Amino acid sequence: MKALSFFFPLITIFCALPSPSMSATESLVYGGCSQFKYSPGSAYESGVNSLFTSIVNSANSSPYSNFTMTGQTPEDTVCGLFQCRGDLNPSACFSCVSQAVNQLGTFCMKSTGGALQLEGCLVKYDNSTFLGVEDKTMLLKKCGPLVGYDADLMTRGEAVLGYISADDGTYKPYRFSGSGNIQAEAQCVQDLDQGECQDCMKDAIGQLKSYCGGAKWGDMYLAKCYARFWEGSADPSGSGYGKRLRRGQWLLLGENIHKATVQVLEGRGKGKERKGHSLTLI
Ligand SMILES: *[C@@H]1O[C@H](CO)[C@@H](O)[C@H](O)[C@H]1NC(C)=O
Ligand SMILES: *[C@@H]1O[C@H](CO)[C@@H](O)[C@H](O)[C@H]1NC(C)=O
Description:
Blueprint: H1 8-15, E1 28-34, H2 43-58, E2 64-69, E3 78-84, H3 90-107, E4 114-118, E5 121-126, E6 138-143, H4 151-165, E7 174-179, E8 182-188, H5 194-212, E9 217-222, E10 225-231, H6 239-242, E11 249-253, E12 262-264
Parallel strand pairs: 1-11
Antiparallel strand pairs: 1-4, 2-3, 3-5, 4-5, 6-9, 7-8, 8-10, 9-10, 11-12
Helix pairs in contact: 2-3
Domain Gnk2-homologous: 26-130, 131-234
Organism: Trapa natans (Water chestnut)
Pfam family, one: Stress-antifung
């Protein structure tokens, strides 16, 4: 947890946003912006604006969609997608995506690319083609405190994670399983096909087990899928889940946000320089 203080200025900015109706599905998991900026008034800027409009407009009719705003030149072309968690209803999806787009517009102002993962949805845009590309870059991993030896809990944990990682050959971009007090879920971005989604989830779940085995909860976010488990209520707004203190994180992403150059922005309080370091928080 030594890196936590680095985030403080960024978390403060995030918390200062007016968010009167923010629900658990709309709390921040991670966000990042490309370090490249477009110029105000550029064709790229209008591409980003119409992309955001299209994304919000389709979020109440579908849990996933992708868009390509073709500019006059390849450099002016911007791609984007949103992905809602599979258990959200259309209005919760719409609300989550609207919130994410608002925040992206603020935090990634003039950035050529950005990604924001809220609990209930992901919104991502970039100037290069990341659509349909499997990307297993680890963006965030977090584990809760260890539970201590509890054979029953461990068996249940194994079972729910085993269940959601099983491949029955059908396309299941969202998976959920619960056993007693242990719940687990996994979600792919639906630009992945069945095989890629299975592969990505399998990786995420494998890493989740190896990093967070024996913990009360764990989150493993890869670029195109995530897996998590937690002890407590199945209802994300219920007490067990809600008690998990989640701290949003902002990442500085490399040239293209789908590339493996994820860095954490250190806050200014920690020295004059902004230095990146790779993201391996537990
Ligand atoms: C995306 O934008 C950055 C910064 O302007 C540029 O270096 C990069 O080449 C662009 N990528 C594409 C595919 O246009
Ligand atoms: C992007 O959207 C189009 C139109 O909805 C769809 O046909 C296509 O399969 C999507 N591509 C990916 C990679 O999801």
